[in-house]
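ARCHIVE CARD
CATEGORY: sequence design from structure
SOURCE FIELD: tokenized fold
FIELD CONTENT:
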């Protein structure tokens, strides 16, 4: 049970924090120096979704990657609009927590 709780905490809070630092805080900022905001957000979103690619999920990967790409576009827009990673981390954490509820409670 404690290992399960640690994993839930990591997936809901630690992973979103690290991914937002890496993708929106670092990568998107680097791309903004070379491209427009729209291109930077789109490229970051594409890399974010491909980062989550898993061959073992087969055709289901297309739906997952599409939803992650859209989420990442929203997170990128939010980062540019708010000029802060905190709203991105909060939204990403919420998304992951809802996903966990769907996996463990609804199914």
């Amino acid at each position: 049970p404690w290992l399960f709780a640690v994993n839930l905490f990591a997936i809901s809070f630690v992973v979103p924090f690290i991914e937002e630092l890496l993708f929106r805080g670092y990568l998107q900022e680097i791309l903004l120096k070379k491209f427009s905001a729209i291109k930077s957000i789109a490229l970051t979103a594409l890399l974010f979704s491909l980062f989550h690619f898993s061959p073992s999920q087969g055709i289901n990967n297309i739906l997952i990657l599409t939803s992650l790409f859209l989420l990442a576009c929203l997170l990128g827009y939010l980062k540019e609009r708010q000029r802060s990673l905190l709203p991105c981390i909060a939204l990403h954490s919420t998304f992951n927590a809802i996903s966990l509820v769907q996996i463990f409670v609804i199914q």
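CARD ANNOTATION: The mean pLDDT is 94. DSSP finds four helices and no strands in the chain.
SHELF: design records, drawer C
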